[in-house]
């Protein structure tokens, strides 16, 4: 006795087709995040150039001092079965130049890598601080700066967050006080233009500053 294989129904096929399509679209929509080492390129470039120039100056200085202190000494060597006597400085100069050139290339490559990594720890926080200052300057006092664990300038970020929180509290207090004055002016039947000025001031405060989630509810 044989059993014929049952074909899946149309609804079942559509279900698997839609789910598989959604799965692949979600995989394509979530690309791998690459770590960015070039955040503030100008700052990092000048940092690397200055570090490499300092390294080059140190090598030139050490070569010049070694050459200077060996000028008055003589060194004997055999060249093509001939005994030659030269100044020690001139004798070691070719080897010294080649050695320093190779050392400069290797150390410069390592210096660029290390400097890029170290400057990234500084450039990243600087970028976040600049963004935070721009947000606060635009009136958003809810913005907070959050650094990674290994980032530098954590104290500066904490000070910024404390400052914006304090300003938000003060702005909220002023807004509440103006609202109270507006209600009091209405109860005392003060002139309409005075009440309108208070209402306008309150609108300016709420439009110019963002101090909490309730702002979205008031302006939404």
Structure description:
By secondary structure, the chain is mostly helical. The protein has two domains: 39-137, no CATH class; 141-220. The chain is 71% helix and 5% strand. The protein has six helices and two strands; from the N terminus they run ααββαααα. The chain has helices at residues 10-29, 41-69, 88-137, 154-187, 192-208, 214-219; strands at 74-79, 82-87. A two-stranded antiparallel sheet has the order 1-2. A hairpin with a 2-residue loop joins strand 1 and strand 2 (82-87). The longest helix has 50 residues, at 88-137. It is rod-shaped. It starts with 9 loop residues before the first helix and ends with a helix. Residues 1-5, 22-33 and 216-220 have low confidence and may be disordered.
Widest beta sheet: strand line-up: 1-2
How many domains in all? 2
Residues in helices, as a percent range? over 70%
> pLDDT under 50 segments (min length 5)?
1-5, 22-33, 216-220
Task: Specify the structural class.
Answer: mainly alpha
Count of alpha and pi helical runs:
6
* Helix/strand order: HHEEHHHH
Number of strands: 2
State mean pLDDT (0 to 100 scale). 75
Biggest sheet descriptor: 2 strands, antiparallel
Q: Taking Cα atoms only, what radius of gyration do you get, to the nearest Å?
A: 36 Å
Distance between the termini: 70 Å
Strand content: 5-15%
Shape: rod-shaped
């Amino acid at each position: 006795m044989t059993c014929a294989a049952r074909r899946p129904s149309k609804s079942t096929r559509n279900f698997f087709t839609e789910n598989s399509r959604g799965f692949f679209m979600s995989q394509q929509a979530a690309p791998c995040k690459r770590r960015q080492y070039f955040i503030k390129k100008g700052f990092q470039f000048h940092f690397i150039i200055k570090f490499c120039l300092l390294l080059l100056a140190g090598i030139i200085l050490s070569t010049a001092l070694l050459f200077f202190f060996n000028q008055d000494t003589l060194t004997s060597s055999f060249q093509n079965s001939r005994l030659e006597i030269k100044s020690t400085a001139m004798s070691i100069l070719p080897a010294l130049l080649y050695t320093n050139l190779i050392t400069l290339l290797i150390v410069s490559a390592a210096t660029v890598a290390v400097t890029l990594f170290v400057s990234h720890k500084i450039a990243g926080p600087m970028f976040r601080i600049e963004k935070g200052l721009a947000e606060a300057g635009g009136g958003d006092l809810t913005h907070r700066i959050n650094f990674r664990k290994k980032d530098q300038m954590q104290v500066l970020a904490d000070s910024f967050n404390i400052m914006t929180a304090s300003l938000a509290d003060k702005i909220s207090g002023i807004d509440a006080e103006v609202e109270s004055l507006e209600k009091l002016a209405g109860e005392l039947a003060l002139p309409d233009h005075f009440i309108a000025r208070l209402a306008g001031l309150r609108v300016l405060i709420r439009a110019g500053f963002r101090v909490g989630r309730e702002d979205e509810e008031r302006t939404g």
